[in-house]
Amino acid sequence: MKPLPSLLLVITDRHQARHSIETIAEGVGQAGGRWLMLRDKDLEPAQRRSLATRLAEIAGRHRMHLSVSRDVALAAQCGASVHLQRAAAVGAVRQHLAPGALIGVSAHGLDDVAAAAAAGADYVTLSPIFLTSSKPGYGPALGVAAIERAASLGIAVLALGGLTADLARPCLDAGAAGVAVMGEIMRSDNPGRAVGGLLGACNAAQLRPS
User: Fold this and answer.
1) pLDDT tens for residues 43-102?
2) Which of 75, 97, 196, 202 is deepest in the core (most CB within 10 A)?
3) Total of domains in the chain
């Protein structure tokens, strides 16, 4: 199992963001965040390429790992990792990426997690663990118990959906390899402070006995 870049994966969404995605990325890096995913799948392709290029430059300066949602060619162009919607594509995608790149898969239940593990993905985002205002009505919430079952399937599991600093520890205690956060950071007036709080909670959870 490849080591993940960080206990915290920050996912972009310009529709919720109170600042530009570039400003948020700078704040993430300055606060010690080391893993950023470009989502924003509805951007026109040329705009998305331009944004990915700018994020790759910011990531390079802050030693952040960059992932790109869905677009394998764009990820390869930026030297980034890729996050897929389905496990079936994992085998074909691996050959197009740099050796150190990660392949993640979105999972919404144990069957999705098992499929990603069997396909050789490096991690899954399992969602929604909690109810989330980023995607209202998207659920039902799986709850922390789902993390423990998913983690037993032999793949790194990132808890996604409704995550806050206060909810990070229960997820890590249940076996999550980390947490993935979008709205809590995108909607923050101070994204760097939000990242710092989440990282602090994750690090404390790892250090303290369960």
Assistant:
1) 999 999 999 999 999 999 999 999 999 999 999 999 999 999 999 999 999 999 998 899
2) 75
3) 1
User: pTM value?
Assistant: 0.96
pLDDT at 207 over 90: no
Burial of 178 (0-12, 13-18, 19+ CB in 10 A): buried
Within a domain: 3: no
Per-residue H/E/C for 140-205: CCCCCHHHHHHHCCCCEEEEECCCCHHHHHHHHHCCCCEEEECHHHHCCCCHHHHHHHHHHHHHHH
Alpha carbons 186 and 17: distance in angstroms, whole number: 4
- Tell me the CATH number at 84: 3.20.20.70
